[in-house]
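User: Please run a holo structure prediction.
Assistant: Happy to. Please share the sequence and the ligand.
User: Here you go; the ligand is zinc ion.
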Amino acid sequence: MKRRSFITRSLAGGVAAGSALSLLHPQSVLAKRPRKTFSIQETGRYDLLLKGGHVIDPANNINSKMDVAITDGNIAGISANIPQNESKKTIDVSELYVTPGFIDMHAHGFYTDLTTSYQWVRFSDICFPSGVTTVLDVGSSGAETFEQFKKLIDMSKVRTLALLNISATGMNDKGEQDPAQYKIPSMVEMAQTYPDIIIGFKTAHYWTTPPYDKIHTPWASVDAVIEAGRRAGLPVMFDFFPRKPSDGYPARSYRELILEKGRPGDIHTHVFARHFPIIDENGKVNQDLFKAQERGFIFDVGHGAGSFVYRNAVPAIQQGFRPNTISTDLHGDNTCGPVVNMANVISKFLCMGLPIEDVILRSTINPARIMNRPELGQLTVGHTADVAVFEVLKGDFSYVDTSGGKNFGDQKIYNILTLSGGKIGFDPYGLSYPYWENAPKDSAYWVNPSGQYF
Ligand SMILES: [Zn+2]
């Protein structure tokens, strides 16, 4: 077969330019300057080359302009200049950032569970557009419902991991409040049956205001989930509500959770929710947070619809506290705000003063290691090619929290292209497409479907 010539015509050439660009954010470099160097050819040792981007890969201490080559779904090369003629397909990603695909460590995707009033999202719809290639569902399912959820996981294009809820029935209100549903042996057995998916356990929403009694003791769900984690050798996540002493029972204190009960590697999610003692009455950040991090305890953002307030986050970050991981807590009631998606949540941290390499760290390799999937979240040769390609728009932006507060910022992450296992998962601007007239002449593009009737 004859070697195809390089196609150097711009992505948005011809009369299509106006409509092709109308999708774009007006400040995007794609709107200002169409991509120039898209090319395809028959030969080349690489399948795909992302050329000219600014690579940030905290796991490998890379923060500079680099080319990234991909073959057979894996990262195959990364260096300052990989020639275009070594790759079958080359995409110009100049003026864009290239990072490991984001890992969202807190989301909810069990959308076929109709026994609960919660509304879930479809990961395939919402993750790739915001650069997320791995998502952790945190306790939407439990030991008795996980296999139903697994059918969705198996269908999902987005790599989906899961925490089992302490309640065997999953995240419906009744089970989480009922210690009789905390079936530890079943949880451990399910985790051991599906070790590729289940990476730990979660407790949430337990007994936040009703009076305690002999069954509903202050620490029942926390103690049970830790016991499950201990038996399975897995981390656990706490969605937690501190309470004062009441009804003859002692306090359920935040300090006890993060400095005593929680083990190294265990995770407190919703760290900037308004009901935690993050900032004291003098405006100082709680020093227990640093002590907990020193002993290996993990703090996750888990933004959600009610778990992120700037009055906690801004002063904490100004005083040097950084959550280990940035995550969304995506569910059906926050995709239209205040969460929207992972890129929006990461942007909030950029605009609170964290450097770009720092927010990428907390959205890629940090969650990968915490989930005991250290092979993810990095652009290392031989590892799976999960990649986000995005811009950081500059301008006047504003962001909202979950209690009616707003913050301003001059940056916004705007995802352009997502690869999952080397495959294109999101490319609405056609960076990986030829201009239509240049589609390969022997490809199906030019063939009328068989049976087409005039
Ligand atoms: Zn959640």
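The first strand starts at residue 39 and ends at 40.
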